[in-house]
Amino acid sequence: MCRIMLTLTLLGLSIGLVANAFPTQQSGNGKNWVVIVAGSNGWHNYRHQADACHAYQIVHKNGIPDKQIVVMMYDDLATNKQNPTPGVVINRPSGTNVYKGVPKDYTGNAVTPDNFLAVLKGDSASTQLGSGKVLKSGPNDHVFVYISARGAPGLLAFPNDELYAADLMDVIEYMHKNKKYKKLVFYIDACDSGSMMTKLPDDINVYATTATNSYACYYDEKRNTYLGDWYSVNWMENSDVEDLSKETLMRQFKVVRSKTRHVMQFGNKTLANMKVKAFQGNAKARPAPPMTLQPVVEPGLIPSPDVPMAILNRTATAKGHVYQLRSHLKGIEQLKQNMQKVVQCVTGVNRENPKILNVKMDKMQHQCYKDAVSHYKKHCFRWFSPEVRIARPSVPHPKDSPALTQASPALIQPPGLPSSDPAPRSPQL
Ligand SMILES: *[C@@H]1O[C@H](CO)[C@@H](O)[C@H](O)[C@H]1NC(C)=O
Ligand SMILES: *[C@@H]1O[C@H](CO)[C@@H](O)[C@H](O)[C@H]1NC(C)=O
């Protein structure tokens, strides 16, 4: 029974490949704390780290000291060999360098869900590999958490691992019980990010907004990658140009919602009447002077799961490597077929297109779901492996450029599948 349920949810995963009272504005004698996370690595995921760096610049220029800002990002962009401007990371066309001064608290393999949860709990002793910087927040403090990542139902992807909604919810409850904040605000940009917050209570002073469906934007011809995510750049560009001591979270939410569908709010929505500065700035510091941004005429939106394909399409066409494109499409087709076989194998439904493949089920059993995800990842394919996720052709083409043929990690056949099948490809969430 559990096995079937598991598979059903996993399918969702692979297919998803998816005010009355005005609260006080100041945190009193309290402090502002910020946690910023980019949940991916690799050049084709450039946008998540670019978003994170930009978020740091906003809270930094609005007076929150570095010792109250924890940044988690892989940090493989500035020195990446695909970076035509070493040391520079931008988050909009012709944008300024957002990489400057970003604290390196948790980089590389320290960007883990466990470290993230320890940071929120203020549990420095449990952190590994990073600086050990954690929230030291108390009952008078405001905490702002921003995450830009890939996601799937009930989870957010970190570079090598996943953060599960239920674990995040446990830690929020812990923070509430242990008086780790006065008010807590989450902004999450990832596919299916709404599913991270559906269980958020409305009576613990937490407010969250999510992108829910994530779109990449601002393709950069020189860098061959997308510079930002649409939900993210919309709230951040709003924070850049507005006076944050006047702008409210609600207005910021509406600005974002007017540009992207599917944005959602959770928790205590009365908190949205608070000023943005109460979370993205220091109450005692003067807010940063508003910037002027040149409007971007065509943001070039594309659903996040299609990003690797879109990058390949653009670069392959530019370089005349249509062969690469075809082989990637073949890889996706192969993946679909393998997925169908897994479903047939587990459910015993021997039809070409089992209905299950087209529905997303609600997840009931947290541990069961985790086990299933980990089993699937181990035995079917590792979708979050650090290697370039662009599918590699079965027979390398002599003219293939090394950048495009970088091998996928060893992929293991799903159990029960004929071994003659080419290995399935990692989809992008
Ligand atoms: C929501 O927040 C407001 C402002 O802080 C507070 O007055 C209200 O009691 C909260 N609602 C719940 C259900 O806790
Ligand atoms: C690749 O790009 C071309 C032109 O921009 C477009 O017509 C085509 O549909 C794209 N192919 C895929 C598979 O996305």
Automatic annotation (TrEMBL):
Query: Cellular component per GO?
Result: vacuole
Which family is this sequence assigned to?
Belongs to the peptidase C13 family.
Q: Which PANTHER family match?
A: HEMOGLOBINASE FAMILY MEMBER, LEGUMAIN
Q: What is the protein's given name?
A: Legumain
Any idea which UniProt keywords this protein has? Answer: Signal
Q: Which Gene3D superfamilies match?
A: 1.10.132.130, 3.40.50.1460
Coiled coil (residue ranges): none
* Tree of life domain: Eukaryota
UniProt source species: Oncorhynchus tshawytscha (Chinook salmon)
**Which is an annotated GO molecular function term of this record?**
cysteine-type endopeptidase activity
Q: Where is this region: Disordered?
A: 393-429
Q: Which InterPro entries match?
A: Legum_prodom, Legumain_prodom_sf, Peptidase_C13
Gene responsible for this protein: lgmn
